Amino acid sequence: MTDRDNAVFNTMRQPANNLRSGLADTLMAQIESGDLKPGQRLPTEQAIMRATGVSRTIVREALATLRAKGLITTRQGLGAFVSNDPTARSFSIIPNDLQSIDDVLRVLELRMGVEYEAAGLAALRRRQEDLDRMQDRLDALDKALEEGGYGAQEDYAFHRSILVATQNSYYSRLFDTFGDIMVPRQWARLDKMTVTERKRHAARMRREHHAIFTAIRDGDEAAARRAIRSHLSKSAARFEELRDASTSS
């Protein structure tokens, strides 16, 4: 590894909440800037470990993230190389991206920007078939929550039905690149709740989702935007509380 490469990777020596994401971001930045060019071989795992001070596991997880995003390829016995067309893959969020509550909060920020606009458009453009679909998804979410489940897949399906109702396929196609990872069950810590807390959480979820649906059904653009923003803001507030509780304990 050259001195120039070491200068870049040495930024990872500082403590970070998520070393894997930090290393992956460093490599992605080098690829996107052209410092690491298409077809160029990446430094070996050992070289990256020496330069950054992170473990082999962290290095391998970071490289796995880059492979999943289509930015690098691996060749048997030769190592990892920058893809010939590293920008050809569509943007995506994969499970390895959500390694901390801070990562979840960043995804929620993205969702708020997308879904705030989508909810308003859905209120203006929804058709009866869209409302029927949303009602079905809402019923499925209610049933999952009543049965004590997480309702992650049902939650995702309901939110996706809002995007479909915009009559702009780019919204739903964007959501499809994420899948139900947009509803990060693994960080919700619902299994740590008491029965009473779980019931309170389920009631809040039903109330907020029904408010979104009602506003869209009634064609109230402003109310739809307020409802989706309130829902996602409250979700973010809960994750912030979980993060703060984990750091103070």
UniProtKB/TrEMBL annotation:
Transmembrane segments: none annotated. Gene3D superfamilies: GntR ligand-binding domain-like, Winged helix-like DNA-binding domain superfamily/Winged helix DNA-binding domain. Residues 17-85 form the HTH gntR-type domain. InterPro entries: GntR_C (IPR011711), TF_FadR/GntR_C (IPR008920), Tscrpt_reg_HTH_GntR (IPR000524), WH-like_DNA-bd_sf (IPR036388), WH_DNA-bd_sf (IPR036390). The keyword Transcription applies. GO terms for molecular function: DNA binding; DNA-binding transcription factor activity. Keywords: DNA-binding, Transcription, Transcription regulation. This is FadR family transcriptional regulator. It comes from the Bacteria.
